[in-house]
Write a structure and sequence with these properties.
CATH class of the largest domain: Alpha Beta
Bound molecules: zinc ion
CATH topology of the largest domain: TIM Barrel
Structural class: alpha/beta
Radius of gyration: 20 Å
Largest sheet: 9 strands, parallel
Number of domains: 2
Helix content: 25-40%
Length: about 375
């Protein structure tokens, strides 16, 4: 007997995120039917989120001191917080046991599930050991992960071919810190190996200054992260090379690097997805990113919603998910449109984007 479920409500349907009233039939995890039909269900049926950039290893440390303590700024600067190898998070990661780290990552995976995320892409530190720790955490989770590993030590010039091969066999690609953070020959070798294995090469660029952008582009990366300081000329180059960008608005605020030119990215035709970045700095809650993108960046609500769902899925190669469409794998959240928070909203997308919260979710199918 096939496992079937019919759900009525207002459906955020298809690649254009059109709102229709009707039902969806899910059979054995696949969306079999979507039909328009009037109903009085208060449910909003929405695709789940894709969190396109995280570092969930630092789930072990969630409350670094930020800002002023007795007149002095403490651990606020980006390099002091997260830059390898001596940034705060790397010092903490180095002294955390495998068991403790796996458990902390499991908690973040469960939190992703509770907050409506079905897939994420993680920049995994710690070399092959780091990749294996995340795989262990994922064993008890239904969340879809793209793991982008990196060699254990990128500062010193050394032969990393063997390490890269092991990393690439065990991961979905490489997630490099930044073009100015490491020896250039290491970066060149890493890119060659990723091409040889046909795996993703992703890199942070333009986060706190634009002086690593040109260098990053010489590697023709598959995904760029941040581009906070990119000029319009930089963005035209990125658009010409057809490289997608993952932006991390909350992370950029907390590290003090400012607002990414997201509207200019979209105007240049760049595919833009969204990530919550370091768990040390932010929760994995994508509703919080959406609210910020709508209210502070002034981006159209439908566009925001698509950046956090469909666009992330497209960038990560998860094409049969990311939207509610016949034939797609069902990755769906059912939201209570009659919750105290959402009751009375006229447009389900604007309602969810501007004021939706994890506690409005009734259930998640992933
Ligand atoms: Zn990052």
């Amino acid at each position: 007997m096939p496992c079937q479920q019919t759900i009525y409500g207002k459906i955020i349907y298809g690649p254009e995120a059109e709102v229709i009233e009707g039902y969806i039939l899910v059979e054995d995890g696949i969306i079999k039917e979507v039909e328009e039909k009037r109903n009085d269900s208060g449910h909003i049926i929405a695709p789940c989120f894709v969190n396109a950039h995280t570092h969930i290893g630092d789930s072990i440390y969630k409350d670094p001191v930020l800002g002023k303590v007795r007149g002095h700024y403490v651990e606020r600067d980006l390099s002091q917080l997260v830059q390898p190898p001596h940034g705060l998070k790397h010092r903490i990661l180095a002294r955390t046991s495998h068991k403790k780290m796996v458990q902390a990552m499991k908690n973040s995976l469960m939190d992703m599930n509770n907050t409506g995320t079905y897939a994420f892409a993680d920049f995994r530190e710690g070399g092959i050991k780091g990749v294996i720790a995340l795989k262990e955490a994922l064993e008890s989770s239904d969340i879809n992960a793209k793991i982008f590993g990196r060699p254990g030590n990128c500062k010193e010039k050394r032969d990393i071919s063997e390490e890269l091969e092991e990393l690439l066999i065990n991961s979905d690609g490489l997630g490099m810190s930044g073009a100015n953070d490491m020896d250039i020959t290491i970066l060149e070798t890493a890119r060659q190996h990723s091409l040889k294995r046909n795996k993703t090469f992703a890199i942070h660029a333009g986060e706190s200054s634009r002086d690593d952008i040109e260098k990053a582009l010489t590697f023709d990366p598959d995904i760029l992260i941040h581009m906070t300081k990119a000029t319009n000329q930089d963005l035209r180059g990125v658009a010409d090379m057809d490289i997608p960008v993952v932006v991390c608005p909350r992370s950029n605020f907390i590290t003090g690097v400012g607002m990414a030119p997201i509207i200019e990215m979209l105007d240049n035709g760049i595919k833009v997805a969204v990530g919550t970045d370091n768990v040390m700095l932010n929760s994995v809650n994508m509703f919080a990113e959406m609210e910020l993108l709508s209210k502070i960046f002034g981006i159209d609500d439908r566009q925001v919603f698509m950046m956090c769902t469909l666009m992330g899925a497209a960038i990560l190669g998860l094409e049969t998910t990311g939207s509610i469409l016949e034939g797609n794998i069902a990755k769906i959240m059912i939201i209570n449109g009659n919750s105290n928070n959402l009751t009375g909203i006229k447009d389900p997308i604007s309602g969810i984007v501007r004021r939706g919260r994890p506690d409005d979710i009734l259930s998640v199918i992933i």
